Amino acid sequence: MTEPLEKRLEKAMAELHAAQEAVARTERELRTASFAVLSSDRAVRATAGPQGELTGIDFLENKYRDMSPQELAASVLEAASAARLKMNRHVMKAMAPFAEPSSNVPELKGFELDWERIFGPEVLREDDEDPARGPATPAWRDALGDEGED
Q: CA dist 7 to 13, 32, 104, 108, 125, Å?
């Protein structure tokens, strides 16, 4: 026995209102979100704001004084990129439920978001913060070469 049209419409409207409230809450949370990340050499902390913009750079423990300009630039770029990636992943996780199909209203199929196109391919790669694996060596460190190392 199928449900009357009025009842289905009532359910759909209730779900729409609940989704609108959830989107508004999520938008408020995302407007104030930020993520700070340390560079692998622990010399720089970069903070990314709600739209992935760089909102802060901190040079820690005066380590920058003993770094070449290239090393310092690499540390800044590494920390800034990681903070931005963390923010992008946070946005992706926060918004993903709104694209899913409705469990109460089968006619609402949901929609697919191309996160890679929005944020770039790195957002879909495995999270590098798996403590069991340990930190990965950034590619820019390899570019500096092994000068002075035995």
A: 10, 38, 12, 15, 43
Q: Which residues pair with 38 in a beta bridge?
A: 45
Look up residue 37 and give its amino acid: V
What's the CA gap between 69 and 71, in Å, rounded? Answer: 6
80's tokens: 């800034």
Give pTM, 2 decimals: 0.72
| pLDDT tens for each residue of 10-46 | 888 888 888 889 889 999 999 999 999 999 999 999 9
Lowest mean pLDDT among 39-53, 104-118, 135-149: 135-149
DSSP secondary structure string for all residues of 63-105: GGGGS-HHHHHHHHHHHHHHHHHHHHHHHHHHHGGGGSPPSS-
Longest Cα pair distance anywhere in the chain, in angstroms?
79
